[in-house]
């Protein structure tokens, strides 16, 4: 399937209240999940860093593999994309068509299926907006012909300004979701979003793969107006952005069973990468 001829632009400006957030239902006893979902910590960490280090909403594609026989979807990596609205607003984000086509090609050349898209909600909960639901519905329809699932991952890196910096609030919140066939009259005739309970997993060569991808990401966003200086402090808080980022990543790594020693070793490598690329240089250079 060619994405360069079927590029989906996020959102429509004709829907009323397009930024209204819609709570997700959960797969459970009443509604069975269509497949088992595994999320690699490599993909999550890449999305988390991307979301933390840019002031505006970020966006990208998810690469992975789907096994229809065992009804299992593995999200294995993420491919950041350029945004048409980067640097103008943290409330809306549209994927640049050229960047999206390039990301699709990179994922498929690497042997992955394009299994979803991600974006961030910088300072508000990771529930989908009405615009997000519209975009997700288009994606699901586009990929339905190949009997391949296509989901959405939304990540919230920063708590709202009035929240205190508890350990729980330092860890990014995220949701992986798809739309049911059921139309909800209470949500402007949108299909109901259902959230998965993914298993966070580790792949082989985590250290090499993640640090390599983070080098690519940081080189891509370094020096852009919307990119944060990670040694600056959170707005209204006595904590550098870097500390917040690493705390969230550390939690993800240890959730997969990585030992504290190994987790700290990986965190130290990531700290060095972030400081090399995303710290203010002397004289602004």
From TrEMBL:
<dbReference type="InterPro" id="IPR050242">
    <property type="entry name" value="JAMM_MPN+_peptidase_M67A"/>
</dbReference>
<protein>
    <recommendedName>
        <fullName>MPN domain-containing protein</fullName>
    </recommendedName>
</protein>
<feature type="domain" description="MPN">
    <location>
        <begin position="37"/>
        <end position="174"/>
    </location>
</feature>
<dbReference type="InterPro" id="IPR037518">
    <property type="entry name" value="MPN"/>
</dbReference>
<dbReference type="InterPro" id="IPR000555">
    <property type="entry name" value="JAMM/MPN+_dom"/>
</dbReference>
<dbReference type="GO" id="GO:0008237">
    <property type="term" value="F:metallopeptidase activity"/>
</dbReference>
<dbReference type="Pfam" id="PF01398">
    <property type="entry name" value="JAB"/>
</dbReference>
């Amino acid at each position: 399937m060619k994405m360069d001829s079927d590029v989906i632009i996020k959102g429509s400006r004709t829907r009323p209240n397009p930024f209204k957030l819609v709570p997700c239902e959960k797969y459970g006893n009443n509604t069975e999940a269509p497949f088992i979902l595994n999320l690699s910590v490599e993909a999550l960490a890449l999305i988390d860093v991307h979301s933390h280090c840019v002031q505006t909403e970020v966006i990208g594609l998810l690469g992975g593999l789907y096994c229809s026989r065992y009804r299992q979807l593995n999200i294995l990596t993420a491919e950041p994309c350029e945004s048409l609205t980067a640097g103008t607003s943290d409330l809306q984000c549209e994927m640049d068509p050229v960047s999206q086509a390039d990301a699709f090609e990179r994922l498929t050349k690497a042997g992955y299926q394009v299994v979803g898209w991600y974006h961030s909600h910088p300072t508000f909960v990771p529930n989908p907006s009405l615009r997000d639901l519209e975009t997700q519905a288009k994606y699901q329809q586009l990929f339905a012909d190949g009997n391949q699932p296509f989901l959405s991952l939304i990540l919230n890196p920063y708590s709202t300004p009035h929240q205190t910096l508890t350990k729980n609030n330092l860890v990014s919140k995220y949701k992986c979701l798809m739309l049911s066939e059921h139309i909800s009259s209470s949500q402007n005739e949108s299909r109901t979003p259902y959230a998965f309970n993914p298993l966070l997993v580790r792949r082989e060569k985590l250290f090499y793969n993640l640090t390599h991808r983070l080098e690519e990401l940081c080189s891509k966003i370094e020096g852009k107006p919307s990119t944060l200086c990670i040694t600056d402090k959170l707005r209204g808080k006595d904590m550098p952005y870097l500390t917040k980022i690493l705390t969230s990543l550390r939690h993800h790594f240890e959730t997969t069973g990585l030992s504290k020693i190994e987790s700290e070793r990986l965190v130290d490598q990531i700290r060095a990468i972030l400081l090399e690329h995303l710290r203010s240089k002397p004289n602004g250079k």
